[in-house]
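Human: I hope this is not a bother. Would you mind checking the protein record under this note? Thank you for your patience.
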Amino acid sequence: MSQESPHPSLHGLESSATPSRTIQLRFDLVCLASMRRSNDHHLLFDVVVAPAAAEPHERSRAIARSVRDVLCQQESDRCRSRADM
């Protein structure tokens, strides 16, 4: 009897992972889903093209913008936490 992963992307990973690693894997999947929505947002509103119709160059630029957004948010959070100390 095999134990199935609650998420298909985690199949086979959870059984060998520690609980903290499993939590990190799930967190990473949530981040990836969020990034995909962000990429679609950039394609729709910055490039004005449907995500399904986007060319590889347009997709790569949207991904770069999404990564920039995440890094800026992380740095902003870091600066805010330092100011609170």
